[in-house]
Every structure is written in C-alpha cells, then in structure tokens.
Write a structure and sequence with these properties.
Blueprint lengths: L8 H21 L4 H11 L11 H13 L3 H5 L1 H20 L7 H12 L1 H6 L6 H20 L2 H19 L5 H13 L2 H4 L3 H21 L4 H7 L10 H16 L1 H17 L1 H17 L14 H10 L5 H20 L10 H6 L2 H15 L3 E4 L2 H10 L6 E4 L17 E7 L10 E6 L2 E11 L12
Helix pairs in contact: 1-5, 2-3, 2-21, 5-6, 5-8, 6-17, 6-18, 8-9, 9-10, 9-12, 10-16, 14-15, 15-16, 15-17, 15-18, 16-17
C-alpha cells in the first residue's frame, strides 16, 4: 500500500476493515491471559471501581460477553471494533491539529502509524484498560482539535465534549490524567485559550464524568488511588539505569523500532512548530521518564500518549512507508507466534505461551482431581491464577475464589464451609510428578506446574466467592 500518496481512500479504509477482521479472528483464537480473566471476573460483578483500575474495562467486557458469550471473543469484542471509530477520529484530528501538513495525507499517515504499532496491533486483539483508554484519547484529540480551531462562540460544546472524553479515558485508566494536565498546561500558557470560558467549563464536566470512580474510592478507603498513586513514592535511584533501559526498550518494542524513531523525531519537531502536541505528548513522557529514575515503568503505561505521538511523527514531515511496513511485519510475526507458536521457543520461555497455553487441558485435569478429593471449591492466592480458574471452570460446577485482598473488594456471596482444593504455582518443574502436582502443557512440553492442597474448611473464614 502506498503510504506517501493517497490515491484511493476507500482502499485505505478497506485495509483497516481487513485488519479489524484479522484482529477479531486473533481475539477468538488466543486463550485469555490471567489479567484478562481477572477483568472478566470484574465484569461479572460490575461496580464503579476496582482495586487495580477504574471500571471501564469491566463494562466493555460485560457488553462484549452479552453479545458473544463468555468466550475469549466475547471478552475482547469491543477492542478490535473500537479501532475503526478511533482511527476515524485520529484521521480528522490530524486535519485540525497539524495545520502545516497536507490533509488527508496527514490523517492517513497518523492512522497508519498508530495501527502499525505492536501496542495497538496486538493490544486491540486483547482486552486491558489500555484498550478503551487509547480509544477515548484518540476521540478526545478530535474534540480538542475542534475546540482550539473553531471561533469562541462555536467552541464551547467541543470543550465540554473534551472534558467528558478525558473523563471517560480516566474511567479507563488513571494515566489519562496526564493528558488532562498536558491540555491544562497548554490552555494556561495560551492567552487566547485561557480567556475562553470553554476550557474552564470543561472541568466540572470532567469531574462529573469521573465522579463514579472517585465515589467508589471514597467509600473503599481510597484503595485504588492509593495503590496506583503510591507507586509515585517508590524511589530506588541506584537502579535508575536499569529502569530507564527497561522504559526505552519497552517503547522500542511496543512501538516497533522504526516507528519509535519517528515518534522521537516527531516530538522534537513539535517543539519548534506545534506547542499543543508538545504539551499533550512531552509532559506525560516526562513524568514516565522521571518515574523511571527511581522505579520501574511498565511497558504499557506510555500507551496513553501513542495517539499523540502518531500525530507528532507526521508533523516531522518524514516518510513513513518503511516504518509502517516494518511495524506491521513485526506485529504480524508476534501475533502469529501468539496464535500458532510456529517458532521453536519453549512454552515456558515464550511470554505469551507462558500465560495462555494449556489451560483447557489443565482445567480438565484439575476438575478430575477435585472430584476425586471430594472438593467443591477451588482457591488460589494469586489473583491471575484464581481468575483463570474462575473463567475456565465456569461449567464444571466448582466454585472458585481468591484469597488475595483484591477479591475482598468484590460484592460476592460468602463461601460456605466446604471442602476446598488450594492451587499454588510452584517455581520448579519436578523430574517426576507426585500425585498432588498438576502441570499445564503445550505441544508436549511443560509450561507451569501447580501444587494441590486439600483444605477441609477453606481458611476457616467467610471469603468472597465466585461461582
């Protein structure tokens, strides 16, 4: 596909439609990761907040499973489908936020770059809080573009919509607050925007949109905000080189190398000719870089700024053909490996296979073990393991609950005093398997092994329970 000359817009959108079909197929093929299963547990018990994140990912999963059932496709359904409207919004945001570039070429380039990243390519086929986050940020960029380019008397509604969209992004993941701060900085330092009523009236709209999350935190001892905000206080400067290397290495991997280079060049170009994109892009990145001087930044955290960086890369005026092509190739290889494990990598060392491989067969063995022991309850301390068991044991008649404190925040029925089977991962693979150890296997190779312990009265307390 020609990326530097727009000849057939219909062909371009057809290409994105094909990508959507491929992502839906991948979403149906891949088993759930432990985190996705955990968010599925949330979706069975909708509330305004959770220990780890706000509620949006649970709501999206609930809608998807209402349409496609409690299947991997149902859990992930809204992810691939959201990319098309998100891409449309980013396409039109380029016309408004990149006045120095030729549109619609600039819009096609920004959309292509974002879709070519591994972050969106694989991320759109899975369901995490980043999935709705990137969608709402992309749509918010379009609203911001309208708000800052229209006359004051026509911009008010767009400012209010911006506040709502940034609020919905916050309801997806707390890192969205960085985009809000970036926009606030741009407004405060722009006399023309600062004098408009729109930006200031958008604040109460934003607060109203995030009020469910704030209310949940206020009624749960601020558990979620303290957990996420507490990371800002971590400080291990002796490991700064390691943390900075992980941060930049993670972004090179998630953006793919050539697109990462364009992101860097583009943001630098914006310092000279696009102040708004600098505020929206550089401020969040500066926060992540500063944090990485004292503690680890997870590779997916900067995903919040990827739509902004796609626009910034186009602002630099560089050719994107090879960067986009290489991104799609890398993403395709990773997705094929995730779905079919065609490379001879041992499952225990493949990060995707390690999380997803062998669960159906393992759950059948676990169910037989529970029946043989007379157990009616499965329990695990690790929240990911407990969630995988809950998702995969849905039709077995076994109840599953976790003993991690996260599960205490769910409004679940209390567990009765039943005979339970505790499942715990062991970090070595025994040469010969005792009766109380079961292993997940893939392609005839062991992935992970788990110790089974019979408990007559599970912990002797009333615990949250998932049935």
């Amino acid at each position: 596909m020609q990326t530097d000359t727009v000849r057939t817009p219909g062909m371009f959108w057809g290409f994105l439609g094909l990508l959507t079909v491929l992502r839906l197929t991948l979403a149906a093929l891949l088993p759930l990761t432990p985190d996705e299963a955990y968010y599925w547990v949330w979706s069975r018990h909708l509330q305004m907040g959770y220990f780890d994140h706000p509620f949006m990912v649970a709501l999206w999963i609930r809608i998807g499973t209402w349409i496609a059932g409690d299947t991997p496709l149902g859990v992930r359904l809204l992810g691939p489908l959201s990319v098309l409207p998100g891409s449309w919004a980013l396409f039109h945001a380029a016309r408004l936020l990149l006045p120095s570039r030729s549109w619609p070429l600039s819009g096609f380039q920004a959309v292509l770059l974002l879709n070519a990243t591994l972050m969106l390519g694989l991320g759109a086929a899975t369901m995490t809080p980043d999935t709705p986050l990137v969608f709402f940020v992309s749509v918010a960029l379009y609203a911001i573009g309208k708000a800052v380019t229209l006359p004051t008397n026509k911009a008010l509604g767009w400012w209010l919509l911006t506040g709502m969209l940034l609020g919905l992004a916050f309801d997806s993941k707390y890192t969205a607050v960085l985009i809000g701060f970036g926009l606030g900085g741009a407004v405060v330092f722009s006399p023309a925007w600062r004098k408009q009523p729109g930006p200031w009236l958008a604040i109460p709209v934003l607060l109203a949109t995030i009020s469910p999350v704030l209310y949940w935190n206020a009624t749960h001892h601020w558990a979620s905000l303290l957990k996420q905000g507490g990371r800002a206080g971590d400080w291990h400067p002796a490991r700064a080189i390691q943390f900075q290397s992980e941060l930049f290495g993670g972004q090179i991997g998630l953006a793919t190398p050539l697109i990462f280079g364009l992101f860097v060049i583009g943001l630098w170009a914006c310092f000279k000719r696009n102040t708004l994109l600098v505020w929206l892009g550089a401020l969040p990145l500066a926060v992540f870089i500063f944090h990485a001087f004292g503690d680890r930044v997870q590779a997916n955290w900067p995903a919040v700024v990827y739509p902004v960086l796609a626009l910034a890369a186009v602002e630099a005026g560089r050719r994107i053909r090879w960067a986009a092509a290489s991104g799609f190739v890398v993403t395709a290889l990773v997705c094929l490996q995730a779905a079919f494990a065609f490379l001879p990598i041992p499952p225990a060392k493949d990060p995707v296979q390690r999380q997803t491989a062998g669960w159906p067969e393992f759950d059948q063995k676990l169910e037989r073990q529970a029946v043989a022991q007379g157990a009616t309850v499965l329990m695990a301390e690790d929240y990911g393991l407990a969630s995988q068991l809950a998702f995969n044991q849905g039709n077995s008649g076994l109840s599953v609950f976790g003993t991690d404190r996260r599960w205490e925040l769910f409004r679940l029925p209390a567990a009765r005093e039943e005979k339970g089977l505790r499942v715990e991962e062991i970090h070595h693979i025994p040469s010969s398997l005792p009766m109380d150890v079961l292993c997940r296997e893939s392609q005839g190779r062991t992935v992970r092994c788990y110790q089974m312990t019979v408990v007559e009265n599970p912990l002797g307390v009333q615990l949250p329970r998932h049935s």
